[in-house]
## 1
Amino acid sequence: MAKSKVPGQALTVVVTSFNPVKIEAAREAFMRSFPLHEIRVVPLKVSSGVADQPMSDDETRRGARNRVSEARLKVPDADFWVGLEGGLD
């Protein structure tokens, strides 16, 4: 949950990937959700704790949550943490 911010003040969004498509998707979503704020996206490499190619919805969801948990530990002062995990089911 974002801390209370003054309109125009930057929001820091940690995206647990360096994939440019995932970064831009997160940036676009936050720009639309918070149009009065500057959005600062910080890519971060963290472990998902699951297979490189998750093979179930449960494993995919667990991987995304694991990434967010690790990101919150590494960058605790961010306003939001985004974990995007692609998987097959």
Note: The mean pLDDT is 89.
## 2
Amino acid sequence: MNNKQYYDNSYLPSIIKWGRITSIIGAVAIMLPVIALRYFFGIEVDSAKLTSAITMQLAVTAVWWIIDPVSIFPALGTSGTIVACLSGNMHNLRLPAALTATKASGYDEGTSEANVMATVGVCISVFIINS
């Protein structure tokens, strides 16, 4: 099995599977503070205020849910995009790290090798910033 076949048949399906799992875990984890406030501290939020706050936040950020992945995906690839979405700072930290790693490796952007190198760059930036 050559590198391209391994990338398409083994690497990408595994990345997509674990990306879905970690994204679901991340979505649930985001709700933990609200759940803790409600059930452990007895603080209740009026549903009208909560709906208003959610609506305002969605109006501001919904467009970026489309723009960010579409504009950044070509440079980061599937796995780099998943890691960048979960860790944040996509434009000002993850993207430059991915592009630098890809350029330093010498691979052409858009290839499977470049996508792996971009993921390495994103993961290293997450590790360095969080350690």
Note: DSSP finds four helices and no strands in the chain.
## 3
Amino acid sequence: MELHPFLLLFELRRAVDVLERTLMTRLDAADWPRLTVTQVLLFVHLQPEGVTAAELARRMGMSRQSMQKNLDRLRELNLVTLQPHPRDRRSSLVTRTPDGARFAQAAAQVLDGFERRLEAALGTDAVNQARSVLTADFDEVLRTGQKANGR
């Protein structure tokens, strides 16, 4: 049977949809505020010492305006705070509030549960290999046809 060229993209998208839907359902069931997936994933990039909104936007591949809208929502919910940047008066540092830290922990527990279930079903080696493939620099791989970053 010949595989359709769109099959890989379709299956990756389907897997992401299932993971996103399950994540949001479980966070909702735990009485966390309803957030977008983007707003949840933003917590991955927050650091204890803080990070600027511009850096968050760059890391997540979105515009500064979109990032600001997401941060405004998270501030309304008391999940993040913006503090003056100690070295750049034009910038603010985004940090988690105590509620934001609890939210990030709850989301991490759900995601860790996903990984454990995948490992139980597929094996640790398969999950590690998938992680390696999915963390590759796809732009570089597609541009050059070579492994990126020495991987």
Note: The CA atoms of residues 1 and 7 lie 13 Å apart.
## 4
Amino acid sequence: MSFVQEFFSNYILIAAILSWLAAQVLKTIIDFFLNRKFHKERLIGAGGMPSSHSALVCAFMVATARQYSLSSFEFALSFVFAIVVMYDAMGVRRAAGEQAKVLNLLVDNLSEDDDSIPWPEKKLKEYLGHTPTQVLAGAILGAVIALLL
């Protein structure tokens, strides 16, 4: 079997990749309708609705459960991995995004005439993490895609 055939016959990997891709496309469409503007960064960027990180790891977890069973070592690893990723998306990365919003606002409101402040050349990235709803939506999307494949 060739490399390409082997790669595309890996159900777990394909479920995870398709879930990530579906979440990114949905995120871009939702962002377009909410902001009336196309942001190409939404196609690959973090943050937004639904969480592509959650979609990817939940598809990975569900596909692993289907292939190896809920009592397998492989499922245990995928479950723990999914929990860590989703917790991080709602916690650390979301907090970093909130801090970036505050810092960007501060920089916008301070005088750039002050040479003692090292002014950033561009704004900090604010779309980093997710709300619990965004994580849940991504998790459901990933699980459904893995079940449908």
Note: The chain is about 70% helix and 0% strand.
